[in-house]
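Figure-free illustration: sequence to structure, shown twice.
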Amino acid sequence: MILSCDPEELSRLSKVELQVAILERRSAIRWHRGQILDDRCFYDDYALWHLLKDSPPRPGLISVEWGMGQCTLFYEYRRSDTLDPVPEGAILDPKRWDDDLLGLTEEGLLAKLVQLQKALGAHRDIRDRPRTIEDDRVLYQILPENLPADFRLPPREEFLGYACAPRAGCPSFWKSHGTCQGPHNLHQWGPCSGSSKSGRF
């Protein structure tokens, strides 16, 4: 469900629609938080932002140079060498992660949805600096379970180089899509198939 951040517009949703929208957004943020090691990628951000109106489209045809530039920024600014600690009071049981929604009124659900939309918008609308690990942490804190992500990445030579080529590393990934007939599915290794449109890097 693609929605705006406007509380007045969101208030037109029914109680069931509010619940569905909240769970949809929480699920997307949890998926984003759950990516680990070389499954983490700047492209994952688009899976969050597409829930907001006026978001940029997911890139379809990407050059090796642009893709590697984004991967390098991701490695420099969205990586940690250590695990974040689990805060006191974190909810470890996934079955309880959405217990806070039980018994909420429409007004209470609306407030939670507006909060989620604003958090997603803040994560998306960073334009004057690189997006950082702290921006991801702030986004994940919107979730009631308050669990940390694993921000570790493989060593630089594996993530940004050819140490594990040809089936690992950003350069090998982008080159695997070099012969695709677009649009690309950038959640998997190339080459992509099944499209009649011509696309190249």
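We now fold a second protein in the same way, so the two outputs can be compared directly.
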Amino acid sequence: MICLTGDIHHASLRTNDQKYIKPGDSEINISRRFLGLLEKHGVKATFYVTGKSFKEEWNGLKPIAASPLVEIGGHTYNGIPLGALSRLRYRLIGRVPPSHSPTYGSRFSQERDIQKTIDAVEERTGRKIVSWRSHGYIHDKYTYSILVQKGIRLISDEISSSKTSPEKTKEGLISHPINTIPDHDHLYHAHRDEEFVKKAKAAGYGTDAFGCDSYSAERWAGLVRERIIAIEERGGLVTILMHPLCMYLADGFKAAEELLKFISGYKTIWAREITEACFSGQKML
């Protein structure tokens, strides 16, 4: 089984990738075009969406949230942007700044952020979210217990090249790691060219469980296919991260569509379906 996931951000977050969008377009508009590919190939997806997207860009987001192929999960409220002073500090020391703040804040600020995200989604869709991935995978000793208290049941913020199945955290969440090579930090796109990757490596930034190398969209998709086959052969659950914006900026969705064709040959599920699909007969929560 495959759980295809993607992250979607509000335009006012002004991420590095968003700077490469053509005038008049937006990340959410591009995500709607990605939705068209999901519909074409009959593939389910869980989209982790920032709460501000529902406040600021609901008209564009509504078709995505209403799709019978889509589950909406939480992705923090405002994307935890790195402050201007912190970005200046990174530039002054000659290091590549991360795309997010290094911390999620105090327990109180996390509770407020998580609740604001949950409320923003429910206000627009009428549905409570149960799945979560913080922007930048950020979490600390408070995050998981807060998520459980707020009604979240599933988390996907770990990158693992070895895990093939979901597992239960001590707080009671079901964690399903991203166990195929993620796109954003391993895909040449937007500002992420060979020179950028070279500087990031030199600065010790951008390494995860799959290393620090980046690839063309075609090669990246090939690596994901190889992992799908290997995990399926072991009877595990594949969790894929494909940002609609990354895949569009890389090659205009060419590799994404080929990969979706391949994925359509397998059973796809939402994150919220993992409990039943993977732990049938076991009381996990």
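Summary for the second example: The first strand starts at residue 2 and ends at 8.
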